[in-house]
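Reply to dn_fold:

You asked what the input looked like. This is it:
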Amino acid sequence: MVYFDRNPNIIGWASEEFSIPYKSPIDGRWHRYYPDFIIKVKEKDNAVRVKVIEVKPKKQTKAPVPQKRITRRYLQEVATYGINRSKWEAAQDYCADRKWEFLVLTEKELGI
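and this is what came back:
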């Protein structure tokens, strides 16, 4: 958040400011997804763009490798990945309708 506050090109930001409806692949019901950040950025061409950002561990952004032995941990990883994919697909549609950009950032992009 300090980065957002100190960056002169970021003219506004908020954390978990709004929700996006998504349908869970686990229970088939509608839920609310609260993206981590929304920022307004002044680009080099002076255009103001809105970016919606989700921060996740890289492990949660990839489908789990199929296992010979199905463990509780593996099933949890599959569920987490499925829910995340549903959230992110809903977020991409939501942002596209508004001409916003949706990004999922991991420790790789953040340099952690």
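The CA atoms of residues 12 and 95 lie 17 Å apart.
Hope that clears it up.
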